[in-house]
From TrEMBL:
The name this protein goes by in its record: Pantothenate synthetase
Assigned keywords, A-Z: ATP-binding, Cytoplasm, Ligase, Nucleotide-binding, Pantothenate biosynthesis
Cellular compartments annotated: Cytoplasm
Miscellaneous remark of the record: The reaction proceeds by a bi uni uni bi ping pong mechanism.
Organism lineage: Bacteria, Bacillati, Actinomycetota, Actinomycetes, Micrococcales
Assembly, per entry: Homodimer.
Top-level taxon of the source organism: Bacteria
Provenance organism: Psychromicrobium silvestre
Catalytic activity, reaction form: (R)-pantoate + beta-alanine + ATP = (R)-pantothenate + AMP + diphosphate + H(+)
Length: 290
C-alpha cells in the first residue's frame, strides 16, 4: 500500500502501478475517511473490476455549510489505510486542504443546478456545488494515462450519485460512474460515519427510517398502493426523530412521482428517499422500489 499526499505523487504512483500491465484498468474510490464496511464494499467492488484501485481520503471544507459539522467530522487515517489495504486498494491519496485548494477557496467551481437545490441541497445550501467541485478535482487529479476509468460511489448518497452521473455526462468526463448498493448494519441502519454520534436510544430510534423504507419496498413488491402518508406517520410517531423529507422520486432526476402514482397500485421504477435529524445527527437513507 502506498499513501501519497500530493496530486503529483498520485499521478506518479498510479502510472507506476499500471505500467507493464497487459490490460490495465483503474478505479477511484473518493471518500472523506472515518471508513466503515460501506466504504470497504466500494473498495472491494472497485478491486473486482480494475487492476489498480486508488482511494482518496479528504474532508472537503467546500461541501460543509456548518463549521461545527466540519470540525467534528471524524478522522482516523491509520485505521482507514488498513481497511482499504484489506479491501484491495493499492494507493491512497490523502491530501491536506492546501494541496487541494492552494489559492484558498476556488473562484471557479461547479454548479449543481436545480438538482442540487432540492432534498439535501435544500437543507445544506451549496453542499452539492462543493461536493461536485471536489469530485471533479479528484477525477482530474486521479486521471491515469488510460482512455477511461471508473469511479465508485455509494447509493446511500443517492442525490450525490445522481449529480455525479449528470456531471460526467454533461461535462464529458472520461469516467464510468459505478453505484454500489447501501451496506447496512444487521438491524437495518445504513452505515454512515456520522452514526458514531448517536446515543444508544437515538440509534434505536433511527431504525424507523429503514423500517419505513422497507414498508414501501414491500408494498411496491406486492404492487399495492404505496400509501406514503402512512409511512410518514410511522416515522413521525418516533419522538426522537425529526423528519425532514420522505419522498418517492424518479431515480435519475429525483422528480417526485405524481400524486396518483402513490395511490394507485405501484407499477414502475422509483426511489424512496428519506432524511431526518436524530439528536444532533442528520441521517439520510433510501431504497429502490420496483
Ligand atoms: N452504508 C454505505 N454503503 C455503501 N456506500 C456508502 C455507505 N456509506 C457511505 N458510502 C459511500 O462512501 C463514499 C464516501 O462517503 P463518506 O466518506 O461521506 O461516508 P459516509 O459514511 O456517507 O459519511 P457521512 O454520511 O457521515 O458523511 C460515498 O460514495 C458514500 O455514498
Ligand atoms: C464524494 C465525496 C468524497 C466528496 O467529498 C463525499 O461527498 C462523500 O464522501 O460522499
Ligand atoms: N456522504 C456525503 C458527504 C457529506 O455528508 O458531506
Amino acid at each position: 500500500m502506498k499513501v501519497v499526499s500530493t496530486i503529483a505523487g498520485l499521478r506518479e504512483a498510479s502510472a507506476a502501478l499500471l505500467s507493464g500491465q497487459r490490460e490495465p484498468s483503474f478505479g477511484l474510490v473518493p471518500t472523506m475517511g472515518a471508513l466503515h464496511s460501506g466504504h470497504a464494499e466500494l473498495a472491494r467492488a472497485a478491486a473486482r473490476e480494475n487492476t489498480v484501485v486508488a482511494a482518496s481520503i479528504f474532508v472537503n471544507p467546500l461541501q460543509f455549510g456548518d463549521p461545527s459539522d466540519l470540525e467534528r467530522y471524524p478522522r482516523s487515517l491509520e485505521a482507514d489505510v488498513e481497511l482499504l489495504a484489506e479491501a484491495g486498494v493499492k494507493l491512497v491519496f490523502a491530501p491536506e486542504v492546501t494541496e487541494m485548494y492552494p489559492a484558498g477557496e476556488p473562484m471557479v467551481r461547479l454548479s449543481s443546478g436545480v438538482l442540487g437545490t432540492v432534498f439535501e441541497g435544500a437543507s445544506r445550501p451549496g453542499h452539492f456545488d462543493g461536493a461536485l467541485t471536489v469530485v471533479a478535482k479528484l477525477l482530474h487529479a486521479g486521471t491515469p494515462a488510460l482512455g477511461s476509468y471508473r469511479a465508485y460511489f455509494g447509493q446511500k448518497d443517492a442525490q450525490q450519485l445522481a449529480l455525479v452521473r449528470r456531471m460526467v455526462a454533461d461535462l464529458n468526463f472520461p469516467v464510468q460512474i459505478v453505484g454500489v448498493p447501501t451496506v447496512r448494519a444487521e438491524d437495518g441502519l445504513a452505515l454512515s460515519s456520522r452514526n458514531r454520534f448517536l446515543s444508544a436510544s437515538e440509534r434505536q430510534a433511527a431504525l424507523v427510517l429503514s423500517r419505513a423504507l422497507r414498508l414501501l419496498v414491500g408494498r411496491a413488491e406486492r404492487r399495492e398502493p404505496l400509501d406514503l402518508d402512512s409511512a410518514v406517520a410511522l416515522v413521525r410517531s418516533e419522538p426522537l426523530v425529526e423528519l425532514d423529507y420522505f419522498e418517492v422520486v424518479n431515480p435519475a432526476t429525483l422528480a417526485p412521482l405524481a400524486e396518483n402514482c402513490r395511490e394507485t397500485p405501484f407499477n414502475g421504477q422509483a426511489l424512496a428517499l428519506i432524511a431526518a435529524k436524530v439528536g444532533s445527527v442528520r441521517l439520510i437513507d433510501n431504497m429502490p422500489l420496483g
